[in-house]
Design goal:
This protein has about 425 residues and is an alpha/beta fold. The protein has 14 helices and 14 strands.
Length: about 425
Amino acid sequence: MSQSGSQHRSAPSSASRLDATGPSTRPVRNTPAVIEYAEPHFRQARDRGLIDVYGRSANGRTILLERGDYAGKAVVDFVRCSYLGLDNHPEVIAGAVAAIEQYGSLHWSCARTRLNFGLIGNLEKDLSDLFDARVIAYSSVLAANMGALPLTASGHLTGGRKPLMVLDRLAHATLAFHKPAIAEETRVVTIPHNDLDALERLCQQNDVVAYICDGVYSMGGAAPVDALRRLQARYGLFLYIDDAHGISLFGHRCEGYVRSQLSGALGDRTIVAASLGKGFGASGGLIMLGTAHQEDLFRSFAVAHAFSASPNLAAVGAALGSSRLHRTSELDSRRCKLWDNVRLFDSILPTAQKGEKLPIRVVEFGDEHQAISAGCVLLEAGYYVSVIFFPTVARGKAGLRICLTASHSDDEVDHVARAVLEVLNQS
């Protein structure tokens, strides 16, 4: 058994067959094989109360479970990605309630090209100021990516020339899922994780290249943003980076892992997607654009804008509440507490991510049944962590994912780390 998880931070999507040593160009789905291999593990995890869990928030990171064998049990949650603990902040909740009361509605069922709540216009203006970009808000990051990737592949964002679309092998499933759709527009390849040499060779061999990756990866680790910017300066590389797990955690204005490393205007060759949940603490997604031309295209032709509805008003109001918090000193104190918790965890239980100023830690068991059993032991002890296995991670790399937040107490971080360490020692 290994505690290392750095080489398998997120799974290769079932949307592609991958060559581990070089680019792959075959975006072929293989859903039956995925289900055949993974379904027994899902069934076991579900039967043992580790997935499809229902509950409600209590104080801090405590949740009260409401169904199944654990109904009524209070557990400390290390699953949610609200890294700053804003998802149950009074200001965020009050913003959601006030929005519904002000507008007397929750949702307008029409495409955004037709009718929008005034409040979402206020939110997009507010976020544009916060992140120094042209921001469009969506109901989810998935919806943002769904619209953005085909537009990028079409060539309309790269001077009318269709780019070679290059995806990182560990790009999140909400990016990789769209490979077949963008392959209808242009050529798609997948390269090994953070392989800048492979990316540079493709830049040298092709007139226009667009690179699609995560900012902070969902199983730990991050994109080398500075190095990607150097390739952009040298070759005109178009960057599309999904920073869902990095938003709010970095930067003077809490603009996120990626945006905080991009000085000045985004320009016409960089787009950043992000979450309005996770570190931001509300609900929905957003996209940061650099030009008026890009914004016009997205507002007219992005699928989730032209053919679907906006985030509901509760989500919009909550995001406005969080945006107000982002302009206060409270965010700095919460970020300091988060990084204190990360250091405390690392001092007790070293993982492959030890020392990274990122909030995700992965403990690898390898065997799916061992990982599920470990999750059960922790749940019995009062700690709910994510049991991860294929297709979330690669086959044979099952383990536990632990999301640390600013709302966890020192004792909660200490106790969960020691509980995992005890399980490892007994395995």
